[in-house]
């Protein structure tokens, strides 16, 4: 493992994923070091990994988890994807005990959103919706320049808006969520081959079924973001995540759904995220620096 370089006063941000864990070191708002490692087999091992990354110069740690957390206690509540049993795990206290620095534990999509809001595609905007297209579909809401959190760090889950009540089962227990159509596995399932980037390539080469699968993904996302805009109000949506490379192929259907609701929600800009795969780790570092 490569240990981070940096000077005293830097902030460590870690984005724990189902397979990979990304980290960044922020000096001010600048990334001075970053890396990616395989996600360890369980939460205890993950805490040891992060503690090793932190020593000895960081002043705070932010950890993004792909699920719901209790920010007040730093406890993982519903984190189904990374290896091991995370639910109920006191990540914040454990990591703080190992490192001696303040730790913030946050949802990964909210971390992505904070980074894109303060430093990325939504810089200068205050009322914004976010969607993160990956294996899952995460989301977040910013109002008046603040990312909404809620009691389980679960506000803004646009990926779990129902678009087909009779659709495929979703990991959340519901059926026909946006995630079942616009997440990577859903796109691959609908097309019958993968990965999602290959479906996008097929669509660009003129494969009509691939075009249709991605249009349906955009349609589902547009319904969710349009409904979210009806609930919260927003000037823009920012779309990122590994599958968002196909945003151009989803964009027309997405914009059509937003446009259908124009009388209600006004004109909404669709902006690609700009910070890339490190956005979640950058946002986690920013939250860590806020010390809760
Ligand atoms: Zn769902």
From TrEMBL:
GO terms for molecular function: glucokinase activity. The keyword Nucleus does not apply. Keywords: Kinase, Transferase. Pfam families: ROK. InterPro entries: ATPase_NBD, ROK, ROK_cs. Its EC number is 2.7.1.2. The keyword Transferase applies. Gene3D superfamilies: 3.30.420.40. Belongs to the ROK (NagC/XylR) family. This is Glucokinase. It comes from Nonomuraea muscovyensis. The lineage of its organism: Bacteria, Bacillati, Actinomycetota, Actinomycetes, Streptosporangiales.
